[in-house]
Fold each of these.
Amino acid sequence: MTANALTVGFIGLGAMGGPMAERLLAAGHRLLVHDVDPAMVARAAALGATALPSPAAVADAAPVVFVSLPTPEVVKQVALGAGGLVEGSAMRVYADLSTTGARVAQEVAAGLSPKGVAVLDAPVSGGVAGAQAGTLSIMVSGDRVAFERVSDLLQAIGKGTIHVGEQVGQGQTLKLVNNLIAATVWAATAEAMVMGAKAGLDPAVMHAVVARSSGRSFSTEVFMPEAVLERRFDFGFRLELMRKDVRLALAEAEALGTTMLTCTTAKQLYDHAHAHGAEGQDVTALIRLLETWGGAEVSAQRRD
Ligand code: NAD
């Protein structure tokens, strides 16, 4: 262990949490971990983490606890439910790396603050590759002193972390803004690419041109080359999680009373994919639905 090694709790060792935990271990910190999936726990334990039986047990031993969990409901359960973090006595800082929306961040803060716990929301962007490389974009909100206390730890998992504001939930709202843009641009990109393929354009050529023209985006730079053109559909972010983010974002927009014509249409596409069995599939597989409807494939090895 290094001289400034800390004891850190980490709950949720999935596609994002697994590599983030691995980077904290590699930075020399002592990790106390928990996940409901024994395979995820075994993977972290093999790298040197200590497995504990519940979130409460983690919060009883670790002064700083990170969570990276799939949905707002799970985050609430892990933080405030029976056997949850709220029952631990050592935790002083809690940071949520998941995408859960501002409302749940505020509910968790209301439950943990009376126990003397500083609550930070610290959602991330950059995908599994960013988590593995330690280059995630992290948008943190909450008490600045607590933020500074965990900034060394955040440096192990992200680059250019920004403290968005003192108010719990601001980081979550910014993350929803980001993902609403990403989800809507991806829906539009997929539709346009299917149109081009149906018109007879070579998808690889189409991608090469758009990727250096004004239509480029994260979708063309990251989703397209391998996941779509090579038919791997393996970016590492499940479509149901992107749909969750779009729904959370539009619920916040509804509460704020802002107009969301374009993003609402994109949401319907994600809802449709979900209703037609895309649950569990990668977000890049959204294009397959459009390919079926359009009758053309956006593949580097064209078959149509
Ligand atoms: P995931 O489903 O791969 O991982 C979630 C982990 O939480 C799993 O290992 C699961 O077993 C565990 N878990 C579920 N319920 C639990 C409980 N009650 N107690 C303890 N552990 C529990 O999801 P992910 O892709 O790693 O995403 C995690 C969060 O990060 C989500 O909120 C997602 O929206 C967000 N996110 C994901 C990506 C991405 O590219 N995958 C990028 C940015 C943000």
Note: The CA atoms of residues 125 and 137 lie 5 Å apart.
Amino acid sequence: MGNYYQPEIETASREEILRIQNEKIVKQVKHVYDNVEYYRNLMDQKGVKPEDIKSVDDIKKLPFLSKTDLRDAYPYGLLGTDLKNCVRIQSTSGTTGRRVVAFYTQADVDLWEECCARAIVAAGGTNEDVVQVAYGYGLFTGGPGLNGGSHKVGCLTLPMSSGNTERQIQFIQDLSATILCCTPSYAAFIGETMAEKGIKPEENTLKAGIFGAEPWTEEMRQSIQKSLGIKAYDIYGLTETSGPGVSFECEEQTGMHINEDHFYAEIIDPETGEVLPDGSLGELVFTSLDKEAFPLLRYRTRDLCVLTREKCSCGRTHVKMSKPKGRSDDMLIIRGVNVFPSQVETVLLNKGYTPNYQIIVDRVNNTDTMDINVELTPEQFEKHGNDVAPMEKALESAMRTMLGIGPKVHLLAPKSVVRSEGKAVRVIDNRKLV
Ligand code: ADP
Ligand code: ZN
């Protein structure tokens, strides 16, 4: 059994969670219907009235919201309260198109920071910890979210933001940081840079990392845990629902507990919109149960994952989501075959390669091509640098088995692939430019 930030709610019985959700959804649907014209129109079109929603079971009657709705309603169309009640704006990273802006009242900010505080405590954080926040600050939610959560737990907070890796490492050393928060790709880069400086994993004071904001594999976790000498916890969230902290990992590291008292989760078939039973892979949909300023109902995240309700040894009772396999729009369709960058990452790390890779997709003579640039470690480069062909061949064959299509692999000298300080760009799809 671990520690909890809000033990009563984090370990509440299923009945109690359901009771809270049922009570909140009725109020929230009314709040949205009364205040958000855009969604009221969607409900009217579907012939659903607030009175039809009596419990979370009725959520499936409500219309979906998608990223397109958010773009259409930009900037104020989904606002649930008067602007004078709002205290903050954050924005998406714009990874997949036009940015979306989200609004927060003070209560919304508190709720969000509490979710992040739960994640920090689940990673072993207490007021004796020094939390180095190396997510970007600003419009991006990573920095502000973990910063606020760290304050709530009472940790000594280092608001580093991302970048300036030398200084990150110096501050870890000089100020004895114990918990590092950043994207997993940046954590890998910090680990790599430490090794180059001759700092051994056991020589730094870090004990845990809270990494998220982008997809990363189990293999990547193992690699980061080794290079930094820490336990690495996953954290998930999106600007539309508040930011990081919608769900977080506990010490079991087998999926992220969704903060179900604030966010109601569904898994749907992305094609038909039908709600799927627990255990099925599908698109994650969130209904925010409390948010005042940006109260999205049935928001389609496009993230693909599985929900499970098996008992967790940490004592938390909230449903767990698997690591998102990637976004449905991260999925590449190459010669008709579905490919996720995470599959490429798994093969690379299993075969002893670096997580420094990039996938380039193109179309030549009406045929899709897939090239994977992978960096060698300095040791690999020294040993095999003048004859990489056999290694490339072996890797191509392993990729073909995993992906079902045969990419071309290019093994490159160390430092050939650009490092990420925030969300890594894993795919360059040149077909989109045509
Ligand atoms: P953008 O959509 O522009 O990247 P956000 O910064 O709000 O905007 O990012 C939210 C998205 O980041 C999520 O929908 C999800 O695809 C991804 N993400 C966040 N946390 C994780 C995580 N732990 N694992 C995988 N993907 C994640
Ligand atoms: Zn748990």
Note: The chain has twelve helices and 20 strands.
